[in-house]
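Entry 12.
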Amino acid sequence: MLTAIFQTDIKFEDKEYNLAHGTELIKRAAEHGVSICFFPEMSFTGFSMNISHTGESDDYTINRIKKAAVQNKISVGFGYTALKGGKAENHYAVVNSRGKLISDYIKIHSFAIGGEKDDFISGNELPNPFTIDKHNISTYICYDLRFPEIFRASADLSSVMTVAANWPKSRREHWLALLKARAIENQVYVIGINCCGRQGNICYSGDSMVINPFGDVIAAASSDHEEMIIADIAADTEKIRSRFPVLQSRKQKLYRELLGE
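Predicted 3D structure (tokens):
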């Protein structure tokens, strides 16, 4: 599966500029024969709590990306903010090359320290895996990366897991370690899609990458600047799992008992 990751320098809260720039990036990825491309969390606004400005209730961003996906015959993963009863939801959606919305995940874990919990409603459903080039893909968002339970809950149905983020430079070592951990413990490919540059007082270092089920980085951004990364992800997850069947050693019933469930 030929995949593109857009490590973008998001112009904070400027949706029109970022959508126009994103459309050009989608075209560029398609020219490389890519099957699917991914943008960071809150792809066209940055990590903003100004929901009256960034939020939408008319699928505006979805419809713009649908048009670009169809024109360029490519699937696209992207984040957006949806208004919901006076608050908002942090979404990550995927549109396929025919313009069909095939996944629309709501972030389960709100980043309370950053104020997200005050303005955003958390999701309560796991991502619905979708299939591209024989890969079953599940999408997660930023702070979700710190909660291994939800990744394990999707492991049996996934060969690739993506984490779209606005992850700050000050905690970059956590980002690097946790992405590798999620890949190794679930025996999946993990794609980390981060932004770069500065939004307000926060600096983002990028560090976008693709990690294989052994924890090896097979593709990564070469700098902390805007960059498109292209990686060819092999359809070998099941083969790896059968040769080293770690997941078969799980004791689900025991775990629930130990947790008092």
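Annotation: DSSP finds eight helices and 14 strands in the chain. The helical segments are 15-31, 51-54, 60-72, 116-119, 148-155, 172-186, 237-243, 252-258.
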